From TrEMBL:
Residues in N-acetyltransferase domain copies: 18-162
Protein name: N-acetyltransferase domain-containing protein
PROSITE patterns for this protein: GNAT (PS51186)
Coiled coil (residue ranges): none
Species whose genome carries this gene: Liquorilactobacillus capillatus DSM 19910
Record InterPro entries: Acyl_CoA_acyltransferase, GNAT_dom
Molecular functions per Gene Ontology: acyltransferase activity, transferring groups other than amino-acyl groups
């Protein structure tokens, strides 16, 4: 059984640990390790993560398969949409329906808040994630670039009407 629980400030250290581990698992095979480490040190530094967690525009959620923590979501309220800012799963839990569950819950949260569009950005080199999002009904509407460490990468911007 998959469960979702809202992250609270007391969970900050656990969120940091999960964020770092899941990001490295997702990108060490795609991006230079030094660039990944540099990004992680900056974005998941405790003060930065705390600022994100306490920002009222953001909500974080832990995902659990049974009693095992397997991933997390960061949702950001945009003007008329809900941004799926982060969706990360630990490697051992991919392909088990956790990602699908997370997208469904994100849609429910958006609908409860009278929002009718989900948006996200995904690295163009992350083909498994792109395939997943396309399968879930997201479509590419633009692209930009993002810097990770010393390198820039193409970021596909996708959305989905709900």
């Amino acid at each position: 059984m998959i469960k979702i629980t809202k992250v609270v400030l007391d969970d900050l250290l656990l969120l940091q640990k999960l964020s770092i581990r899941s990001y490295k698992e997702a990108f060490y095979s795609l991006i230079n390790h030094n660039d990944v480490d540099s990004y992680v040190d900056q974005v998941y530094e405790l003060a930065s993560l705390k600022a994100e967690l306490t920002d009222p525009a953001n909500d974080f959620y832990f995902l659990k398969a049974g009693d095992k923590l397997c991933g997390y979501l960061k949702l950001t309220l945009e003007n008329d949409s809900l941004e799926l800012s982060r969706i990360y799963m630990l490697n051992g839990f991919k392909g088990l329906g956790v990602g699908s569950f997370a997208v469904e819950k994100t849609e429910e949260i958006a609908q409860r808040n009278n929002l009718h569009k989900l948006v996200l950005g995904v690295l163009a080199i992350n083909t498994p994630a792109i395939s997943f999002y396309l399968h879930k009904g997201f479509v590419k509407y633009s692209e930009t670039s993002v810097k990770i460490g010393h390198d820039s990468f193409k970021l596909l911007l996708m959305d989905k009407e709900i």
